[in-house]
Amino acid sequence: MTADEEPLGWDTTTVAEAYRDRDMRLAERLVFPAVLRRLAERAGPGRLALDIGCGTGAVAARLVTAGEWEVQGLDPSADMLAIARADRPHPRVSYRSFDGHTLDWLADDSVDAAVCCLVYCTDPDDGRLAALTAEIRRVLRPGAPYLLADLNPAATGVAFSTLRHGEPGAVYGDGDTVPTLLRLRDGTMMTSTTHYRSLDRYRRFLTEAGFPSPAVELPTLPAGGPGSSADPAEIRTAPYMILATHA
């Protein structure tokens, strides 16, 4: 797959198979450790964590091995869920299809933690995301953490080692469709789309659902040595952001 192909929609068999082979080095070094660190003290036998928009199960698999969580991995894509079940099965992880905005099988105040990684950027519908955020707030126990990890809007157009969201020099507004390149493990690029939202818009999704204003973490990689033009962009600019709040 090459970068000049037509963008792929997220809920397709083709994109699920490509996403299975994505180069996850940056997420593995920047997103996953920060998420697991913030949840470490919350883990315990029988405690329920949601991985919302779990895709192929990368976060769910790490949650269940980093603590004693019971994990529900939720995704609207049947193809993503099939890959998650095949590639990352675990007796304490259940993968479940959902409609992207309701959690109606879960009671109020019944969930001990929720994580949503690289999901908001894939959904063009603010109303659906607002409904989902309100549902997450409803099901979390008082004080339970919610971690929302997504593309850093301040990094739009920056070419990182494994991705680029947005054209260099382009200016995007809330809701705009953004061309996005993801590097696959064989070195080719998967072309898809994301949807730009400012940090203020992310904050409002959370506060309008009743969450406190989040803490914002912008992780970067440490420099490997004296700076040079060959240094990867991810030592200077955060590709991702992690918003941490609680019910």
Task: Give structural attributes.
disordered N terminus, 247 residues, alpha/beta, seven-stranded mixed β-sheet, three-stranded antiparallel β-sheet, single chain
Percentage of residues in strands: 15-25%
- Principal-axis shape equals globular
Number of strands: 10
Tally of separate helices: 6
Oligomeric state of the chains in view: single chain
SSE arrangement, N to C: HHEHEHEEHEEEEHEE
Mean pLDDT: 92
Uncertain runs are: 1-8
Structural class comes to: alpha/beta
Q: What is Rg?
A: 17 Å
In spatial order, strands of the major sheet run 3-2-1-4-5-10-9
The rounded distance between the terminal residues' Cα atoms is: 42 Å
Q: Please summarize the sheet with the most strands.
A: 7 strands, mixed
| Fraction of residues in helix | 25-40%
Report on the architecture of this protein.
- There is one protein chain.
- By secondary structure, the chain is an alpha/beta fold.
- The chain has 6 helices and 10 strands, in the order ααβαβαββαββββαββ.
- The chain has helices spanning 13-20, 25-39, 58-66, 78-87, 126-139, 199-208, and strands at residues 48-52, 70-75, 93-97, 113-117, 145-151, 163-165, 177-183, 189-195, 215-217, 240-246.
- Strands 3-2-1-4-5-10-9 form a 7-stranded mixed sheet, covered by helices on one side.
- α3 links the parallel β1 (48-52) and β2 (70-75).
- The longest helix has 15 residues, at 25-39.
- The protein is globular and about 45 Å long.
- It starts with 12 loop residues before the first helix and ends with a strand.
- The model is unreliable at 1-8 (pLDDT under 50).
